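Um, can you check?
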Amino acid sequence: MKAIFKPTTIILVVFVLLLVGTSYFLGLSQSKGKTKDVTPDEIIENMVKTETITTDLISRGYIQIGFEIQANSTDAKEELTKRDFQVRNIAIRLLSGMNEEQVKNPVEMGKFETEMKNEINNLMQKGKVVKVYTTNKMIQ
């Protein structure tokens, strides 16, 4: 009986250790993916508002558009404010390649906002842009 008990006990202990170890590492990996909840006050504190931008579309129409850009820190907000001319340039360049239907389409505008965020982030040195919000838009 002792000969059977020893291997069974070892297998059971190894199984429990593997189960506990797997649970621990899964818990760690899931907690890394979670982000800190940000309050509305913290979001507003790091927002930069652009002036209204007017540019032509590829379909020969015009668009007037404005953005609020959320930075991840006050340092990033300061840098973003100084890079206003580059932000405007990126917006004009991206918008001038779009037509009226794309600008009216919420999915296409979501892609535009993401692309704009990514291009601004390529310029940033002291932080990152978290999100670009389109706050006004008028197509003519």
User: Anything to note?
Assistant: The chain has two domains: 1-34, 40-139. The chain has a mean pLDDT of 87. The longest helix spans residues 2-33. The helical segments are 2-33, 40-45, 74-82, 84-95, 100-104, 106-123.
